[in-house]
Structure formats: C-alpha cells, structure tokens
Amino acid sequence: MPPLNDAALTQIAAEMSRRDFARLLGASIALAGATGCVREPSDRVFPYIHTPAAGAGGELHYATAMTLDGYATGLLVRSVDGRPVKVEGNPSHPASRGASSALHQASLLQLYDPERAHQPLLRGRDITWDATVANFSLTRLRDGAGARGAGLLLLMDPTSSPLTVALLDRLQSALPDATVHFHHATENGSAVAASRAAFGAPLLPQPDFTQAVAVVALGDDPFAVGPWHLRQARDFGERRRAGHPVSLHVAETTPSSTSSLTPHRLAVAPALLANTALALLQTVASRLGSNTVQLAPVSLATDAAAWVDSAATALIAHRGHALVTAGPQQPESVHLVAMALNHLLDNLGTAIQYRASPIREAGAPSHDAATLRDALAGNGIRTVLITATNPAYTLPADVLLAQQLAKVQQSLYLGEYLDETARQTQHFAPRAHYLESWGVERAWDGTESPVQPLLTPMWGGHTVDELLASLLGDQRTGRGLLQALYPTATTDDALREGIVTGSTSPVLTPAFRWGALASLAPAPLPAAGQLTLIFPPGNGVHDGRFAGNAWLQELPDPITKLTWDNALLLAPATAARLAVASMDMVRVARDDQHIDVPVLITPGHADDAGSLALGYGRRGPGILENGIGVDTAPLRTEASPFQLAGVTLTRLNRQHPLALTQEHWSIEQRAGDILKGPPVPVPDSGLYRATPPGHDGFSADQWAMTIDLNLCTGCSACVVACQAENNIPVVGKRGVMNSREMHWIRLGRYLDADPATGGVVSQPMLCQHCENAPCEYVCPVNATVHSDDGLNEMVYNRCVGTRFCSNNCPYKVRRFNWLDYHGEMTPVDELINNPDVTVRARGVMEKCTFCVQRIRGAQERSQLAGDATTGPVVTACQQACPTGAIIFGSLTNPADAVVDSFADPRGFAALAKLNTRPRVHYLARDAAS
Amino acid sequence: MPALFRPTATPRARRALIGAVVVALLVPVALMAWVRTPWARGIHVVVQQPVPFSHPLHAGTLRIDCRFCHSEVEWSAHAGMPPTDRCVTCHTPAWQSTAALAPVRASLVSSAPIPWRRVTQLPQFVYFNHAMHVRNGVGCETCHGNVTRMQTVHQVAPLTMTWCVTCHRNPEPSLRPQAEITATGWSPLTLSAAARRTMLAEYNVHHYTNCSTCHR
Asked: Which end of chain A has less neighbouring CB within 10 Å, N or C?
C-alpha cells in the first residue's frame, strides 16, 4: 500500500535534469494561478435505490472477529456509507473487552490494499472461480488422489472454527485417507505438548490477572503478544488502577513490553532461561517442603540466583494468588515448570484456569512440521490444497515445500496475495479478507465468535469454508453455511453481540502427573563464545503476513524503536566482545547456511544471545515488503524453528542504515523533566503569562487527558489507532530516517542510566493542549488557536507552513507534511479515510487534536438528544489502549474519571517549569512497581 | 549624434512607473473583490440535473414538506437525497410513462443510483451538520433560498466564512420557530424582538465560533 514510493521518487529524481526541473517549476507556478479561476464541477450525490432497513446515511457498527493463529478476537467495526473505516475492540468479547491491538487496527489497511489478489489464476492465466473449484471437485480429487484420497494433502492454518471443523469432517469422511495438516508459523506446539505430558490432554492455561498478586513470566510477554494478551492487559490494568498490588517478575532473552513494567527483570540466554525456570521450581518446592519434585540441582549465575530467590519469595508469599506463565516459543520443559509451579502453589481456580484447546487436533502429529516434511517427501502426494497463510515463506527451509510442490500433479493456493506460495502452485484463488467473510471462529477460551462481512468481497474473494464446501459440491455461500450451523434466533443474537452466548469452554480441574517432571534436566550450555539465536514474531508484521502493511512497517518497535527493518539484537556486552556496532552488517552462520543482517545493540538484551524477528525479507507481490529486512528461513529448521544454538558471527565490512525513531524530535536537555519527578508547583515567572487565556464561559466542558505510566507497556496500539482515526500518512523508510514520521503519538522510550539493567519506561507524548500554548503565540496566520473548551486547535486551511509553531513547541509533537503524502491515493485507497477528519495537503502542520471530531460529534449528539451535558467522549488512543492507561474527559464534569486522576498525587505535567499548563497529565511510575 | 531619447520619454517613463505601482496595488484588491462577487461564488449558476425535478411544483403547488424527500435532515449531518423508491411511491401509476421520469425508471430497473449534482457545495475542510441547524431554529430557506421559485435549483448564499460567522456570532435574527422551519417566504423579522429573544433562550443556542466547530 504505497502512499510514498521511494523507488518512484528516485526514478523521477534521476530522470529530471536541473533545467527540466526549473521549466516544470515555472509552468506549475503559472498554472497554479490559473486553477483558482476555474470553478470545479459540482460533486455528484448518489442516493439509495431502496430505503435500507437500518435507515439511510449515518454510521453503523458491526460486531465481527479477526482470527490470528486460529484464535478469534471480537471487534466492532465502524462503517460509514457502506465502507468500514475504523476497527475497535468489542467490549462484550472475552478476548478483547473493548481493547484492540496494532494488528487489529491495521487490518483495515489490508482490506483496501490495492495489491490484494483480484483474480483466480491457472498457471498465470485468468480463470473463473467456478472453473477452479470444478478442477478440484470430489470426482476429480478421487481421480487424481485415489478413491480414498490418499494422494491429497490439505495444508491449513490452525483452525478453531466450528464451521471449518464440520466441513473438514465431511471432507475426511468422503476422502478418509487424505492428509490434513495445520501449520502454525510462530509457535511450535510446546505448550500443548507440555499439557499432554502434565495432564494427558491438550489444555490451555487461562491466566486471570484480576486475581494474580504475584506474577512470574518465563520468556513470556503476556501484555503484548498472543491471542489472549488484550484480555490479560485489560485485567492487569483494572487491578492496578483499583490500587491492588501486583508484583511482576520476568525472565527473558529479548526485552519486552511486559518487562518494561517491572524492576524484577532477568535477562538470560535461552538455554539459561530453561535452567532458571528449573531452579525456580526447585526453590519453591523445597521451601514449601514438597517432596513431589525431585530434580538434579542446577547451578546459576549470581544475578539469576538472586532473581530466582526474589521470584520464589513473591510466589510463596501469595500462594493461591500467584501466577506463572511461559512464552509460546519456550521449550516444553519451561511450560512444564510453569504448570507444575501453578499446581504446587494452589493457583488453580484463582489466578489460573485450564480449558480444552479450541484448536482442531491441537498437539496431534497433524500440527508437527516433521509430519508435513515426511508426507511431502514421500511419493504418495499428488494433489496439494493450501489455505494456510503463505507457508512457502513461513515454513523452515528444510521442509522443502516449494520443491515438493513442483512435483505434484495438481496444486491450489487460496490466498489474499500473489505471494511466495502463489508462485509455487498451479492454481491460485483470491481469499476474502475477514471484513468480507462470513464464518465463526473460537476465542482462546472457546467462545464462539461470529465473523460477518461489512461489504461484499471487493475482488471476488472466497473464504476457506466456501472453498471446502465447493470441493464437496455444496454451493452455499458462507452465510448459508453459517445459518445452517445455528438456529436463526441464535445467529441474529450472535451477530449483534459478537459472541454465541454460552459457548465458552468449561473450566477443567486437571490432576497434575508429577511423573512428567522426571524428564526435566538442566539444559547443556552452549560453548563459550557461541551465540544462541531466537526468532520471535516481528513487531507488527507477525509471521510476515502483515509485511505489506505500511502502517505496521512504520510502527516503531516498543523497545528498539526500529521501523521498516529487522535487525539482529545484541546485548551491549556481546557486541563489545564481537567488536560490532549498531548498523554493522554481520554474517550469521550455522553449518553451511548463513544470512547477512544488520546489528542493533539493545540494552537489556541477554548476553550470548541474539534476537532476529520473523516476517521480514519477503519476496512478495508488492513494492512494500520486498527488500525490507532479512528472511530467517535459511537458518531455521523444522526441528527447532524458533531457536538456534551454536551460531557464529562474522563482521562484514559494510553497513546498513536502520530507521530508528527514538532520537527524533529531540527535546535537548529536558528529558529528565519530561518523564518523571515530583509535581512541580506552577512558578510565578515562566516563559508565558501565569494565567491562562481567558475562558469566556461559553463552554461547559474543559477537555483533559491523563496517562498512567504505571500501566503503559509501550505496545503502540494507540499509535496505530490514532493513525487510522485521523488519516495519518506513512512516509517510508527514507522519510523516517529524515525524522519526518507523521505519527501524532510519539511513544518515547526512556532507558535506565545503567544499560545492563535494561529498565525501560514508555511515555506516549502527544500534543499537550497547553493552556499557555507556545505554538499559538508564534503562528503568523492564526492557524493554531485555542478553543473555549480548552483545545489547542489546528486550522489546516489557514496554515501556510512556516513551521514556527513546531519550532516553538517544547514537547516536539507537531508534524509537518513535507510532501503530498496523500496525493497518490487511488479511489480505492481513499476509501480508508475517516470522513470526519480533513485529509491534509502538503505544506500543512498537523498534530493531535484530542480527536476533536469525536468531541464535536458527542456534543452534537447530546444536544440533539436534549441532554444538558456532553455524553462520554472516548479518544481513539484511549479506546484501543489494552491496559486502560489513558483517561480522557472534561474537568468540569465531576463524573469524569479525569477529574480524580488530575488530583492524583502521582500526577505531573511534563516540563511544568515552563508554565505552559498542559492539559495532559502523566501519572509517574511507582518506584515499587 | 541624435538624441537617444525623445523629449516625451521622461514623462512616459514616469507614467509607466506610477502605472506599475497602481497595477501592483490594484490587482490583489481586484482579485480579493472578485472572489466576493456572486459570479465567483457560483451564485445563480444553473446546475443541470439528470431528472428535470421541479421544486416549484412539488414544494410549491403540491406543498410537500422538504423533509418528505430530504428525510435525514433532522438527525444526520446530511440532509439526504430521496431513494429512488420514494419517487416511485407517488409516481405509480400516475405519470409513469412520461419522458421526464425515464431516469427514475432506469434507476429502478438497473439498480443504479440517480447521479444528482450537488448545488450547495462547501469545501472539503468544512464540516456542516444539517441536524444541528434545523433542530436549533435555522430554517431551510435561510441558506437555500426559496426553492419554490426556482425551476432549477441554484445556490443563493455566498458560502463565504464571513457569511457563516456572521450568523454564528449573532444567530438571533435568523432563528425561526420549529413550526416554520421548512416554510418558504417566511421572514424571522415578522416576529417581535421580545419573541426572538425568548426563542433564542428556548433553543439554548450558543455562539459557536471555535475553529473546530467547522474545521476538524
């Protein structure tokens, strides 16, 4: 999705001589004058043909669900004049509770992506959908793959959908010998494997952060990663806001959002992490006097031993309300330790519950990449159907999918893009986006969540369910299939609420098989000087499926602040030992495989380890993902897809520039004042007059915001939510390197003075709506002025682009449109724009407006309804924030939470000594948290 | 050697210099004056519509209320254009075969909307809410003129910011009671000053002159 195309700009620059440029400049100036004299033709107005049942005009919200890795998250999508323009969390849905992540927000951009596939293809030639599915009818499949389907391989994403499962059952009863395989690109099934060992069944742990007093996360990021993270962050935020104590202990390799909330953080290499977990289990068991755990002693370094001691003390002190979690990419042993600890500490039923996994065949061999490799390597497979998201890219290289696909007689890929996988199959059919689909999916806790479309497929795409039904000769659409699954009344209720009532999986109380712990033994440590690499999912791009999404590519990583790239993250000590610096290219080699990557030194990273994000180095259909970052596939193996021990690093004599945003918008020597400190009394003499500009009393409201730094994990959902709500453009890697990123929220990441601790505080910095706003004094054309309800307003049509305001802003929150970022939008691209917000042109300054369109909209609705006070106003960032760190409201309305939070003793105004009197207050981090 | 300049050269040069200054001053003034003229504002420009719809017939002679067709005006930002099936409500079977209704029939048959042309067009950076005005006492006629006298509807107001802000600063002279909100040929000046003040208080109308009232 390219509002700005670096390649095209370079081409224009190369082809145009100085003289041509001057000539064009002259002509443009002359013509610019002429356009003012011509009246533009009037707009066309298209009414409906038939009056719609929901009433004409206005806006509607639909409940639907987005599925990632097989688990649904319920969403509410705002639709204006028949086009979806904003995604929000569904407050009724257990996996969302009204929160949404950056991925959910940005999924809207995929819907309007002009690079989505438009056309079914057979060996590159256009073909119809009907002809495609006719080639894969049951009869044809039996001809090609044997009467019982032994030669058929179906490769899918993990699925929890009751509808897909029912169709798979029908397919497997028609073709009983067919192989159905599920591929998970960012997990290796270790959690389910541990659950099978510990409980004899594939169960999923369900942490309840409203109850957890002491939390230990083992290589886990429970507030920013995973299908249940929004709920976990919500619950945690609720508990902390209510003033209940939570102690967090995190042991991890790569610094994460969750660990930024706690001083009890341990950075350890992957092998040591497993040993630390073992030591924690031993310590807790011996202190509790339990003789069920018999393990060989583990020796630890001093810092790890101290962390284990502190974590064990906290866990035992809050026995019954403690919680131990393990990250999805951790080995089976760490998951076993977490499960054993939760049982030892009697946490079941309070801080943790177990439910059956909603995923079909969870933990079975059909989820194991080795099974897939063996099935493909055998000569039995003649027909391959792929509905998994781009497995040719996400599978480790040694599965050899592409090579095997070349050998089969027939292959079909149902995908949203003409990506790496589409190039390997004979048939291709476009897949519908989830906002174009009918279906039903299950959340992490099993809740069935209907998926309903907001528009008919823009490019004629179909869903996986529709494909499976077509293979079976069932011509019903997704809607027909869904209606057949539920009674009509259930369907109507479920579509309105976004959940099927009563469908949540029952809570189980499994008995722990202590014998399972017998397999636990300390992991052998890698030889000195050898690195262990881990491959976490990329921030934003996930497993690569969002690599073509410009909003997510330009979203700075919460910790490293890296955009438009992945890089090998190394601890400062490791980098010093290897004599490499940030942006140096290094060759990472193991056996005969190697890749070349840039280094990024990351304070707080574990020593003797490196992290390299998945999802980059795509060779996709679009200009966006190509050439961005490095593909990890050559190094990864099916046996150990997310961890690689014993790699060697060689420094190459070249550099790769990385677009990092933390040093942008520097506020010089004021960083100490901007972040924390006691509340500063308003000084008598400031830069600006002591009393705010007179409020003439017309307005009943005075808008203000509080941001609780105790709750901000830096997850960046607010940044993308703001981008979606306010039509904020992307600027591309080169733009970011020129400090021209346009995000209205800058998520400042501040590190502890001691880089070894890796202590991080994230602070969202946005327009502070100062009562004595420095920007307003210097604007020569009154383009930025104060409203009587306390907003610092930006009038785009008055702005002439002097940039004086940005220069005079002590918070550096104003963004300038250096180029016509919206100028290249096609009519399809334009559909994503929020109609309530002006699309800014080149040469105009912009900044956070406190979502003034939502404020004025609420005021209009209240007035039309005859209410005396303005209804609740929720800003886009506040609505998305998973932990509820952002509070917004009117200082004159005692019912608004912002009034209390302004009186909080932790509250402070950034750079208060300047006497700008900001309307944004921050609540400082507790030293204890 | 003959004289390089004739005797008239000096006064000519003087006149040219003065003329240049005058032109340099007059051009911006003239341009600023021009944009305020009805011609530049597009007032009285005839906009050809796909259907020769007559407001004098429907709103005038037949006395159909504006809100019958522009039905969203009281609760939405947009006044709303009638769906094709609303035309057909009355035009079946009467007048069904007239040539004037051909585009309406075509729209119904082909399920393609009738492409009306906007007459009163605000710039894209201006957010106007019909409901807020109509429900708070600003009548249709105040901005759109008396459409019962326009065979083809044209713009009557200059739609300059001055024009908007004049009323936003002092709304009292433009307010009407709800009973007269869609009336044509009715002037608020027929009310007494006291009655207008009462109405202002009842509507609880404020002076909305924040920039973000219209620019967002």
From this structure: C
